[in-house]
């Protein structure tokens, strides 16, 4: 997995998963522009990796363009955009404020859109293909209690990956979503994970059972998706965590029933228990 000559931008690259991705990409030979809203974290990561930092909160078109411009100014090109930056504002729906909802959507959903839009405009003009690697979440695949904003944003990102994969196929730009499960400041807030994150020890029940481990466990997938070996992989949501690598299914119809002339409410109620409603879909991470 050599990425010599490739240039990548990693948003939220100052710590946690983003830093693990930036380290792995650098180790594989890529030049990485580290972005983070925390200037100290971004500069510290850049010093460690021997690269440059571009500080800013993702979401606006201006910050997105600044990231692309910095990569081109420093290294002459851009090949990989990794949209990892994120925040949490967890609250059950009846207590969630407009500000808490909007803040998460701004960073995760709009930030992904603006960064990818700027990157794709340059990649298409550059004419040498490229790699777009988005950050999904199990919450976006299955929902999670108290995470209306976050789950909605991550579900939207999965849909973006599928849409952009179609739109960019002719340009040989692949688009995939990584669905990581790792010990980070975000997952530290989950009581079941907190003791393991504090100790740094992850038993097989976590590493294999639910695919939960360190940020470094997730970084190999980002390097693979950025490489030439993954040229034929696009539009996918790929899970990674601990010792577990998975491919998430796309939403699909799982059952169907038919009624001549269409369905009345009464007909649906009569047919539901023995037809399409005989086995309901599960939801939630746990």
| Class from secondary-structure proportions | alpha/beta
Strand content: 5-15%
Shape: globular
Approximate helicity band: 40-55%
Number of helices: 10
Rounded to the nearest angstrom, the radius of gyration is: 20 Å
Widest beta sheet: strand line-up: 3-2-1-4-5-6-7-8
Query: How many β-strand runs?
Result: 8
What is the ordering of alpha helices and beta strands? Answer: EHEHEHEHEHHEHHHEEH
Q: Measure the end-to-end span.
A: 34 Å
Spans of at least 5 consecutive residues whose pLDDT stays below 50 are none
The major β-sheet equals: 8 strands, mixed
- What would the average pLDDT be, to the nearest integer? 95
Question: Can you give a write-up of this model?
Answer:
The model has no long low-confidence stretch (mean pLDDT 95). The two termini are 34 Å apart. The chain is of the alpha/beta class and 286 residues long. Strands 3-2-1-4-5-6-7-8 form an 8-stranded mixed sheet, sandwiched between helices.
Quick rundown:
The protein has 286 residues and is α/β, with parallel strands linked by helices. The chain has 10 helices and 8 strands.
Which key features would you list for this structure?
globular, 286 residues, alpha/beta, eight-stranded mixed β-sheet, 10 helices
Helix and strand topology:
Elements: E1 7-10, H1 16-27, E2 31-36, H2 39-49, E3 52-55, H3 61-75, E4 80-83, H4 98-126, E5 130-135, H5 138-142, H6 148-168, E6 173-180, H7 194-199, H8 204-207, H9 216-226, E7 237-241, E8 244-247, H10 265-271
Parallel strand pairs: 1-2, 1-4, 2-3, 4-5, 5-6, 6-7
Antiparallel strand pairs: 7-8
Helix pairs in contact: 1-9, 3-4, 4-6
């Amino acid at each position: 997995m050599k990425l010599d000559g490739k240039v990548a931008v990693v948003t939220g690259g100052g710590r946690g998963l983003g830093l693990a991705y930036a380290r792995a990409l650098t180790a594989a030979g890529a030049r990485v522009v580290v972005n983070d809203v925390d200037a100290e974290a971004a500069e510290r990561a850049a010093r460690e990796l021997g690269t440059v930092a571009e500080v800013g909160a993702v979401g606006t078109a201006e910050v997105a363009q600044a990231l692309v411009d910095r990569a081109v100014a420093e290294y002459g090109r851009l090949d990989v955009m990794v949209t990892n930056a994120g925040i949490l504002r967890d609250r059950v729906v009846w207590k969630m404020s407009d500000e808490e909802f909007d803040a998460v959507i701004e960073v995760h959903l709009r930030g992904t859109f603006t960064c990818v839009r700027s990157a794709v405009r340059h990649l298409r003009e550059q004419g040498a293909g490229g790699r777009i690697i988005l950050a999904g979440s199990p919450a976006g695949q299955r929902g999670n209690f108290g995470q209306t904003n976050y789950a909605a944003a991550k579900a939207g990102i999965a849909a973006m990956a599928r849409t952009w994969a179609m739109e960019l196929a002719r340009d040989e730009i692949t688009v995939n979503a990584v669905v990581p499960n790792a010990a980070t400041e975000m997952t530290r807030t989950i009581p079941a994970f907190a003791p393991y994150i504090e100790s740094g020890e992850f038993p097989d029940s976590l590493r294999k059972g639910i695919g939960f481990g360190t940020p470094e466990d997730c970084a190999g997938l980002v390097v693979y998706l950025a490489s030439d070996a993954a040229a034929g992989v696009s539009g996918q949501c790929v899970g990674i965590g601990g010792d577990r690598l998975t491919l998430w299914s796309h939403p699909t119809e799982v059952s169907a029933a038919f009624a001549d002339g269409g369905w009345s409410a009464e007909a649906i109620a009569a047919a539901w228990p023995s037809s399409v409603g005989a086995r309901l879909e599960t939801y939630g991470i746990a």
